[in-house]
Every structure is written in C-alpha cells, then in structure tokens.
Amino acid sequence: RAAARAAAEASLGKKADYTPAILLLADISLAEGNLSEAIQAVEAAAFLEPQNSQLHYQLGLLNLQAQRYEEARSAFSAALRANPEYANASFFLGQAVYELGDREEALRIFTALDEKHPDNESLEKVIDDILRGTDPFPAAGEDVKTPTE
C-alpha cells in the first residue's frame, strides 16, 4: 500500500485534479481503515466530476458507513440528479432519509422504487418493515448491501 500511496501522491503532485489517483488514495485509505480520509478523497473527486453519478453514489455509501446521514442524503441526491434512473442511489437515499428520521419520505422513496422494480423481495421487505414500525436496516457500522441488484 505504501508504494501505491506514494505513486498516487506523485501523480497528484504533477496533476492535482487527476481523479484516478484521488480514487486510488480513497481505496488505500479505506483499506487502512481511515474512513474519514476516504470520504475526503471521494468528495474531491466528486467535486471535480459533478455529473459523475458513480462518484456521488460512492460518496453516499461512505457517508452511510460513517453514519453521516445528511451528507449521504446529499450525495445520493447528487447521484440522482446526474442519473435519475439510478435505482441503487434511490434505495440508499431512502435509507439515509429513514436514518434521519423521516419515515414518511423514506416510505415514499421506497414505494416509488418498488413501482419500477415490483418483483424485488428485499425492497418489499424494507417497505413492510417500515409500515410495521420495524427497523429495516442493519445495525450501524455494518456493511451495507444493495437489494436492488
């Protein structure tokens, strides 16, 4: 990892806006357990490529993992502005909104997604859990999984 970090930092020394090097640093930081540094790197990449829905999506996932739900909501919203049909971004936007305490808005997001993916049992379970008042998401800090894939 040290050699990869040095190579990425050298690339950024020559071209500060080189997104692949920024993302490599994010991956290295994440592998080293430095979630905060990984978030900062992906934020920088997303700033450089504001229409890149994947970067905003990745930023949202990292923020969810860090329990930074407002930042996650913002990142997933940006991903959806760049690509309105991004189902996974919609799902995790719903989760961020749910974690922020807006169950009604989360249910609206999940229901709209369910209309586009009607045979998704995982999505239907999330909706049922919310309607029953049961928390549909894993404990904080666990890896998030994408039920819409």
Q: What do these coordinates show?
A:
The protein is an all-alpha fold and 149 residues long. It folds into two domains: 1-49, no CATH class; 69-148, Serine Threonine Protein Phosphatase 5, Tetratricopeptide repeat, CATH 1.25.40.10. It has helices at residues 2-14, 19-31, 35-48, 53-65, 69-82, 87-99, 103-116, 121-132. Helix 4 (53-65) runs parallel beside helix 6. The radius of gyration is 17 Å and the shape is elongated. Mean pLDDT is 91; it is low at 141-149.
- Return the CATH class of the largest domain: Mainly Alpha
Strand elements, count: 0
Q: Please state the structural category.
A: mainly alpha
CATH architecture title of the largest domain? Alpha Horseshoe
Strand and helix order: HHHHHHHH
Mean pLDDT: 91
CATH superfamily of the largest domain: Tetratricopeptide repeat domain
Shape: elongated
Major β-sheet, in short?
none
Distance between the termini: 31 Å
In which range does the helix fraction lie? over 70%
Q: So how many helices?
A: 8
